[in-house]
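Re: duplicated header lines in exported structure tokens

Our pipeline writes sequence and tokens for each protein into one text file. With two proteins the header for the second block appears twice in some exports. Here is an export where it did not happen, for reference. First protein block:
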Amino acid sequence: MTDPTAKFGTPDLKLEGLQIWVHGRQFPDAADYWDGNWLRVTAHCGRSGASIFATGSIIHLSELDRWRVESEELLKKLSGEAKLACIEPALSVTLKAGSLGHITMEVSITPDHLSQRHWFQFGIDQSYLPPLVRQCQSILEVYPIKGSRDG
């Protein structure tokens, strides 16, 4: 059986069963905060026979930056949550701290939010956070946030 993700190459972000490939900005010439910061991505989550893809302009760079910051805080405190809380309903990821450095990762992903819902749960630990932060930072270096939220 062929790997359905192989055609995308190495993901820009990989965390347990979640992979995200960034294909570029939705509006590369836009300089304003809202239009200029949408990323065209392919997101995939899979486990135990399930393999779900979501594609399109579903991640805003501000959401990725907030997840990076919250993940750094989660690593420092080993308590609380870090969320990739996307405005678009196709993808969301929540990292919840447990005891002894254990983290529960919950992924909600769908190619069609009007007729489907797919949810995955993974057990990870604090050692997953530094690579996550680096991957988010790498994406933000290639695609810096344009403009300002306030205008």
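Second protein block, exported in the same file:
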Amino acid sequence: MRKLVLQMQMSVDGFVGADGDHDWQVWGWGDDNRWDKALKQDFNAHFQSIDTILLSRKMVEEGYLSHWGNAAQRYPQDPFFAFAQRIIDVQKVVPSDRLEKSRWERTAVRSGDLSREVGALKVEEGGNIAVFGGAGFASALIAAGLVDEFQFYINPAALGGGSRIFDHADFRKFRLLGSKAYECGVVVNRYGPAG
């Protein structure tokens, strides 16, 4: 069975989005990439295990796919941006009851019933499923118990307020799958459900 892997950039104090305009991420997906070489390599290595991406409706409508498509075209020789081409190449799924059909290449719109759609994806043949979306989307997946692995990219900043992903979750325990600190200040912590 495939795993659903939630990747989130997070502050030291547990926020995934800032109240206000704070430059808190070591790399906020723009051209100013301050991740170190080891983190870039590890990120791409992880992305090789992914062959499906689950995207929130909001994220895809706000330009996630065109952003990474443009990055793949701008940096075709940069080995770090191999993941950008992979985003374009793999299957994408957008669970939504608001969208009737997809306007994006290799992207299917399915019903907004997260449990049913994620359950169907997990039993398909293939690699793991990456999740990209905002705090609300991540919270809904967590509350439904659908996430098999959490990958938190902890940035060296405290925000003091903002969006969190566990505000609506019941008590649960996790087991540490791995933790690695990088020279740029980011620590990647990987967790799975305990038991």
